[in-house]
Specification:
Number of strands of chain B: 7
Radius of gyration of chain A: 20 Å
Bound molecules: nicotinamide-adenine-dinucleotide, zinc ion
CATH class of the largest domain in chain B: Alpha Beta
CATH topology of the largest domain in chain B: Alpha-D-Glucose-1,6-Bisphosphate, Chain A, domain 4
Shape of chain B: elongated
Helix content of chain B: 40-55%
Shape of chain A: globular
Number of domains of chain B: 2
Structural class of chain A: alpha/beta
Number of helices of chain B: 8
Number of helices of chain A: 13
CATH topology of the largest domain in chain A: Quinone Oxidoreductase, Chain A, domain 1
Oligomer: heterodimer
CATH architecture of the largest domain in chain A: Alpha-Beta Complex
Largest sheet of chain A: 7 strands, mixed
Number of domains of chain A: 2
Chain lengths: 389, 307
Amino acid sequence: MRANCWMGKNKVQVRNVPDPKILNSRDAIIRITSTTICGSDLHLFNGFIPTMKKGDIMGHEFMGEVVETGPGVTNLRPGDRIVVPFPIACGACNACQHGQFSVCENSNPNAGLAEKIMGHSPAGIFGYSHMLGGFPGGQAEYARVPFADVGPIKIPDDLPDEKVLFLSDVFPTGWMGAEMCEITPGDVIAVWGAGPVGQFAIASAFLMGAERVIAIDRFSYRLRKAERAGAETLNYEDVDVLDALRDMTAGRGPDACIDAVGIEAHHPAPMMYGYDRAKQMARVETDRPFALREAVMACRNGGVVSVIGVYAGMVDKFPMGSFMNRSLTMRGAQCHVQRYLRPLLDRIRAGDIDPSFVISHRMRLDDTPRGYDMFKHKEDECLKVVLTP
Amino acid sequence: MTERDHHNLEGLARGLGWASLGLGAVQLSAPDMVRHMSGVDDSSLSRVMVPLVGVRELFHAAVLLGSRRPGPWVWTRVAGDVMDLTSLGCAVSHRRGKRRRRTMTATAAVAGITAVDLYTAIRAGRRPWAYGLSLHAAITVKRPRDEVYGFWRDLENLPRFMIHLRSVQVIDQRRSRWIAKGPAGKDVEWDAQIVEDRPEELIAWRSAAGARVRNSGSVSFTDAPGGRGTEVRVELRFDPPGGMLGAAFARMLGEHPDQQVRDDMRRFKQVMETGEVVRSEGSPEGVHAIRQLRQRPAQPVMSGGRP
Ligand SMILES: NC(=O)c1ccc[n+]([C@@H]2O[C@H](COP(=O)([O-])OP(=O)(O)OC[C@H]3O[C@@H](n4cnc5c(N)ncnc54)[C@H](O)[C@@H]3O)[C@@H](O)[C@H]2O)c1
Ligand SMILES: [Zn+2]
Ligand SMILES: [Zn+2]
């Protein structure tokens, strides 16, 4: 089959690789009908996530049609259309039983590697490094889906791929980012990053009853998209974000701040950007936490900082004094996608939201490398690339 | 010797470093007292020697206290001890009366210290597993205690999650025959017997007399708090190995044998909670922990043959 492989930093290639086979009894093999490039893939592409290996198949946001099931899968049949959640979860461990699917205790065969870097291991993830399992990803014609009996959700035929595809990752991720803010009437929510994840966080915050949402980014086409969803916007290259947020909230600060940027944040001041960039290159700091630092400083006393942007290792100069003295709460997670599939599918059916609004480009799987370049450099107003094999 | 013993020895080595620091300080600040106590206050040479020895002691202190693994540096102290014993021996043979008695007391004290130094240097210099190896790991399994105990009690289940075992064959209630993947691709076999069995609490076993790799193990089961399932704690012990085979066996367990036992336990949990060992294409030989470090690319494996 054809699959998009990581071939080293800044290099991906669509190659011929063997077809997947059943390895565990609860596996299913699916023929992928739609897949995407996620902001998280850029972190791999740019070489910021350790334990990638040349030849790894990438991609973790995908859906398709079941072609084969292992003997342990009784709820799926060949021909079923399913959306696959990006974290792999067994459904039986203590974490899964508490709905914390992205920290499933059984789905990472390489938990020992992750333990060394993070203390304890989170769940395995499709196409997301060997430390998170060494599972091939979904930017391919076929994929093996472990624990196919607990994760995936069946999609009725009347819903097109583009409406449900993002249930696999960015829609529930944005939703969870807003949910962690525990929004109550009157709340003002600030969202750093107006990429696909940020866009869904904005939409979700409104659906949960936020009074106002403020989106922060530097790409005006992305900010315009956020405005269309009802958000106010700040371009951090034009204004001082902390001052602007203080003004907009009459001195209080946003009730909750969502970091939808992560490890590769950009900073308008070359000095600041250079400082953390150099440390990243020297490997003394793995993550570049500008958005996170700003989110902590901006948040109102007693408020919540919700971290859905991905971090990999260590950050420097974390404003701990601000966090501690001002009674903030910080939450973060890879999205517990399985938890949100059903309720969000219902929302889509009910017409509360049409997730396809983030799609900017449609390409063939063979064009994936071009898709990575466009998405990385935000060329041609690229917001979300959907690939079809 | 266990890793903990090894750790204690490193502590002892560091203690000797502190002793050097104290002695060196006294020799440099109050050389005349030291000369009097060791009965060499009549020699003008000792006026030069004692402070020099003090400087040497400070050197011992620096290397012992400054090193992350002080064990091997104890040999520098042993060398110093030999020098001191030689000069003291010389001093004894040239003295009479009270001085001779003081010199002899000093010699005896240095000899005692030499023994401690030698013991520490020899033991701390060896690889920890040269004395055998004891490993432990613990995990929480979200299944009832009787079920977890029952699965383990059927020893034939062990190779499903313990990487070094090829098979276990139960002979009767107590006895079983174990086959492990040994060094250089050769299998190692031994008979084992259950030495303690408290249902739902503890199982302990030991290799029978004559086993080539003498080993023993125990596993205990307790209720995890708040309905979290069962806490399982395992201890494995490989006794002082009989020659080459044992040493090779220990080497096969790698630099971090505890990690491997922890991985065994993780697979045990997978089998109990999900029914089987979870596999990925990047680490296709799911049961081989060693493969975790030698990953293949995360791609399906070519057809034909077991992946
Ligand atoms: N937690 C999860 O489960 C999960 C799931 C999917 C994605 N993610 C993560 O979410 C993040 C965003 O993903 P995406 O697909 O939207 O990626 P993206 O690259 O399209 O979006 C990131 C946006 O952040 C903006 N940005 C950069 N620096 C900034 C700063 N200092 N302040 C404000 N905005 C800044 C960029 O201009 C860009 O528009 C990534 O880190 C991704 O890995 C997390
Ligand atoms: Zn993603
Ligand atoms: Zn689980």
